[in-house]
Specification:
Elements: E1 3-12, E2 18-26, E3 40-43, E4 50-53, E5 58-66, H1 96-123, H2 136-141, E6 148-156, E7 161-167, E8 175-181, E9 196-198, E10 210-215, E11 224-226, E12 232-240, E13 249-254, H3 255-259
Length: 262
């Protein structure tokens, strides 16, 4: 895989919509054995080797695996084990009050998560078919990876239109991708449609730049992504580990004008 990271977090979408990082370790700093195996420790007390800090309020562990070619790369096989505490301790009884509290937290998570992403998508309406840099502080407060520079926006296209996204020169980075989503910021169906382009699949131009085309029909040009039956949605561009991000430019054109140049 291209990139692997582990982050501990505190907070929750069901409370104030924030997931604050309490510890982080990525594959660049991960000590790995010759056979490819590794062991890391999560905890509040420092530990030799691969240590991901926690705080008393830490309540989540987020693992990100990023692939260049999912069909050719093997995912990391992970397991987790508690190594301290009393193994004979009896968990508290699941009484009515505890069950109710758990159900309310679950319901709050569903409601708040939907509201957060709907609010984000609505906010993108101010720059339809553009890709300005996202507010990086907001992305990090929501649990984003500190190595990622994010661009979030929305798109809306007629069947005879295409969105052209251009980057003059792709910066040196561990990974980058461009992904097409629905209104709720969920990936479109990648099983049957090309809705994502990354560092591995993209065809660069002679100057090291890249042009990506989003449209309902194939223009016969490289780096085409499909709207997959949608007329609008959201989109995300990520630079992972870029020292200096390069901002994409966008323009909407008639699809036929692109076919004329193909």
């Amino acid at each position: 895989m291209a990139y692997l990271s582990f982050g501990t977090q505190k907070g929750g979408y069901e409370t104030d919509g924030r997931m604050i990082q309490t510890g982080f370790l990525d594959s660049n700093r991960l000590a790995v054995a010759p056979d490819g195996s590794f062991e890391l420790f999560l905890g509040a007390r420092p530990h030799d080797g691969n240590w991901v800090p926690m705080e008393p309020a830490t309540n989540a562990l987020v693992v990100r695996q990023t692939f260049l070619d999912r069909k050719a790369e093997a995912p990391a096989e992970l397991s987790i084990e508690r190594i301290d505490g009393d193994p004979k301790a009896v968990p508290p009884v699941l009484g009515a009050e505890r069950l109710q509290a758990g159900l309310m937290r679950a319901a709050g998570f569903v409601e708040s998560t939907a509201r957060i992403f709907a609010d984000w998508a609505q906010g993108y309406g101010g720059h339809v078919n553009a890709l300005p840099p996202a507010d990086q502080a907001v992305c990090q407060a929501a649990g984003g990876d500190p190595n990622i520079f994010y661009y979030h926006s929305c798109w809306a296209l007629a069947d005879d239109e295409a969105l052209v996204v251009e980057v003059d020169r792709v910066p040196a980075c561990e990974f980058w991708n461009f992904q097409i989503n629905n209104y709720w910021m969920e990936s479109l169906d990648y099983r049957y449609h090309d809705i994502c382009l990354n560092k591995h699949r993209a065809r660069l131009d002679a100057n090291g730049g890249v042009t990506v085309i989003l449209s309902a029909r194939d223009p016969g040009l490289p780096n085409w992504l499909e709207t997959a039956g949608h007329h609008n949605g959201t989109m995300c561009w990520r630079w992972v580990g870029a020292a200096q991000p390069v901002h994409p430019r966008t323009r909407v054109v008639k699809l036929e004008s692109l076919r004329e140049t193909a």
